[in-house]
Amino acid sequence: MKILPVKSKTTKAAALSLLAGSALALYLALTPGASTQAGPVVEMYQDPNCGCCTDWADHLRGAGFEVRQHRTRDMRGVKLEHGVIPELASCHTALVDGYVIEGHVPAADIKRLLEERPDVVGLTVPGMPHGSPGMETGRHDDYAVLTWRHEDRTPAIFSEYTH
What we know:
Helices cover 32% and strands 23% of the residues. The protein is of the alpha/beta class. A seven-stranded mixed β-sheet has the order 2-1-3-4-5-6-7, with helices on both faces. The protein is globular, with a radius of gyration of 24 Å. It starts with 7 loop residues before the first helix and ends with a strand.
């Protein structure tokens, strides 16, 4: 068996290529926001004095979403702008990837919405049911997550939670 000599130029090029690739991988791993695995961004609007809204935002963060909280005293205006009628309203309104999320919608339902991409305005949990994400009070109400459309605002059930 004959062993061929390795040319030093080839060895240097391979070493430099490996070093550059390692440096790039390290940079991407350590740079905030550089991950390709980052969750969807949720733009959330809430009254400045609402604590349960922040608890819901924490629920979403725990499920991998990036949540940007915007505090405003004009929640009525935010809801009107995004087609949330009073019968569908809750305390906070959020936007994610073209959908409206109203109230204490569980993160799992938002993920399902984003995967299935139905032709709806978004999801809502009207009111503030106990036991929904952000409303963990020790009591558990039954509640439904609803969808609605702009042209027909009759809600439809997306999922139900019974206790």
